[in-house]
Amino acid sequence: MSSLIGYYSLIFGVGISILVVFFSIKNFNDTQNLDIKVISLVFLQLLFVIISFSGLILSFVNSDFSNETVFNHSHTTKPLFYKISGTWGNHEGSLLLWLLVLTLFIFVFLLKSKNQPNQYRILTLLFQQIIILGFFIFLIQTSNPFNHIFPVPKEGLGLNPILQDPALAIHPPILYLGYVGTSIIFSSALAAVCSNNITKMWASHIKKWVLVSWIFLTLGILLGSIWAYYELGWGGFWFWDPVENVSLMPWFALTTLLHCVLVLEKKLILTSWVVVLSIATFTLSMCGTFLVRSGILNSVHTFANDPERGLYILIFLFILIFLSLFIFLFFHKSKNNNTKTFYLLSKETSILVNNWFMMYFLSVVLIGTIYPIFLEVISSQKISVGPPFFNKLILPFLIPFMMAMAIGPKLKWIKSDVEDKIYLILFFIISLILSMLIIRNLDINFLYNTVLITAAFYLFFITLRDFFHTKYRNLSQIIAHFSFSILILSILFNNIFSSEIITNLKINETYQDQNLKINFESIEQENKQNFKAIKGKFTVEDQSGSIEVMQPELRIYNQPNIVTSEADIKTNMFTDKFMTMNYVQNQDYFNIRYQVKPFMIWIWISTILLCCSGGLSFIKKKYEN
Amino acid sequence: MNILKLLITVIFLINFFSSDLKAKNLGTEITKNLRCLICQGQSVYDSDSEFANSLKILVEKKLDDGLSEKQVYDYLKNKYGDWILYDPGFNKNTYFLWLLPILMFVFGGAIILRKVILKK
């Protein structure tokens, strides 16, 4: 029943889309009608999509297996929370969620943009409706979440157990808020080009949307990393996996845009560049969806894929790119002051430098991700591009990037001089000495690591001083750059100082080396709602004699029948202790992996801080200085 | 004063680090750069599949036989193809892969240079 309502709501939604397009074109010059008729229609559309989405959630909650999506991805013994999150844990449901956010955002946009020119608003609405229509057709044609099966099966196939996790339950919705937010930026930029409305006012208005998307995208990526850290069982949080890269690309583009919009808001320069970035950001988000959903990529994330769907997204993507290029080339009037030159020491130049590096990072990730696909198509040679490639091409460039991040924000608009030269040099020397002290005893490349850590420390100290010294002016910028320095520092230290032990242990056996002693105490079994848990109990004693009890777990899920390994993680402010145990076939011992990972929690904290700085900038009225 | 406090904290942290140092295992480092061929996007190090486990043993054995890090990679490359290495070497298949980003960087730099007045 709820499936049927859900399906018809979708059909009504399409109808309203067409009505919206019709009325907006008809009333293009009639400013009065926009607020009454069109907004209520958009609201109605949102309502229908909400009903449709609720219909799908209800089908999942009631375990209505006459619905194919529910049958494929749910099971009666699954906890209620994961029944609900299962709604978007699959291809069809996640697309419906995309659509829901698309309609929600355009509705909010219309409410929040009342002080903008009406033609610009109508045009934004039109472009957004093109995207919305595309998703409607995509849903109904190739990935209908409400397909009926007959005879009705008694039991569903169940959700992949590694997806049954609180972080992953909220990861897709948050990430989608970020992805879909870029659609508003895209539509709005095209509309601004068409109606020749690229002004300072437009810049400060679109900045809010850039910030919202950026915050949600950052949070979404963070949640995915945290999930990978404790769920995939190898203690890493980022693997340069294609699907991770795909979420990182719009993030780079958005971060660039965020900085660029500030210049536009203040000086009305770089207009073309802002438009290109707005188009690129959304295109990259769509490409992400295409690459993930088409199954072209070899990744841990490919849960559901189907070439036909990939083809549809590809065609849709090409139409959007073609449309936006067409509009950009034929409607965009470059402002005269675009040709103005900048002084080397000025805020404008420093933001250009940011853009330069960001675009470079973006191109590394983009090329690293899609090059293997092209190579395979052209020469049928399979190569892998993994962490070593990205580390080699990105890490060295972080050195000048972080130095620029420290000094750039101190510069003033148009033309300025570096102030506080003594402090800048002093802090550099301190950072250098510190890094040398830390690296001196390690058997890693001394020069390279010292310089890298020096740059990170430099950014850290400079932003820290700015925080106390500037009387909280530009607070959001300082916090953002500060948290980035903590992020890089904690990633570097985490990388350098992590240690691990991999060993096989039977019950009551002990592993010992000069640093620590691991004792396998006991094992116990527990029956949970939809899995059987095998809990190991270990004591870990380190040099100082302090004892930690670790209880990693194996879970044997009933439906589908999959064994997962749950890490036990003991976190404190300095270091994480991480233990997993794995079942070894036909043996009476378990494979134990124990890791000590310093500063793990600071990676999460700094990213959250980064999001907070975005939030702060969102609340703040105007970019200062 | 603030700087002094910071210095003290950081020096404390350095001591904290040095107590916990261990030499990294070369075999483990190598397996991190190998793709587990039967898994979906996992390295040999991360995976617990039979293939990954046998490869971990193989790498250790080759190192014990006295092969250098590079020789181990070459051996695996000959046996399983380029697909297994996460670090794509610099060869005719990968010229573009390595050089294109660098070219982009140079190109971007040139654009900025044209816009910026170098003289004060």
What descriptive keywords fit this protein?
heterodimer, A: 625 residues, alpha+beta, 3 domains, 6-stranded antiparallel beta sheet, 4-stranded antiparallel beta sheet, 11 strands, 63% helix, 11% strand, flat, B: 120 residues, mainly alpha, Helicase, Ruva Protein, domain 3, 2 domains, 5 helices, 60% helix, elongated
Structure description:
The complex is a heterodimer of chains A (about 625) and B (about 120). Chain A has about 625 residues and is an alpha+beta fold. Chain A is flat and about 80 Å long. In chain A, the strands form 2 sheets. In chain A, strands 3, 4, 5, 6, 7 and 8 form a 6-stranded antiparallel β-sheet that branches. Chain A has a 4-stranded antiparallel β-sheet with strand order 2-11-10-9, covered by helices on one side. Chain A starts with a helix and ends in a 6-residue tail after the last helix. Chain A has 17 helices and 11 strands. Chain A has 3 domains: about 1-160, no CATH class; about 165-420, no CATH class; about 500-600, no CATH class. Chain B has about 120 residues and is mainly alpha-helical. In chain B, helix 2 (about 25-30) crosses helix 3 (about 50-65). Chain B has helices at about 1-20, 25-30, 50-65, 70-80, 95-115; one strand spanning about 115. Chains A and B meet through strand 1, helix 12, helix 13, helix 14 and helix 15 of A and helix 1, helix 5 and strand 1 of B.
What percentage of residues of chain A falls in helices of 4 or more residues? 55-70%
Oligomer: heterodimer
Number of helices of chain B: 5
Q: Describe the main β-sheet of chain B briefly.
A: none
Give the strand content of chain B. under 5%
Q: State the helical fraction of chain B.
A: 55-70%
Shape of chain A: flat
Question: How far apart lie the N and C ends of chain B?
Answer: 36 Å
**pLDDT averaged residue by residue of chain A:** 87
Average pLDDT metric of chain B: 79
Main beta sheet of chain A:
6 strands, antiparallel
Please give the number of β-strands of chain A: 11
Radius of gyration of chain A: 26 Å
Structural class of chain B: mainly alpha
Beta-strand percentage range of chain A = 5-15%
Question: Could you give me the name of the CATH homologous superfamily of the largest domain in chain B?
Answer: Cytochrome C biogenesis protein
Number of domains of chain A: 3
Straight-line distance between termini of chain A: 58 Å
The number of distinct structural domains of chain B comes to: 2
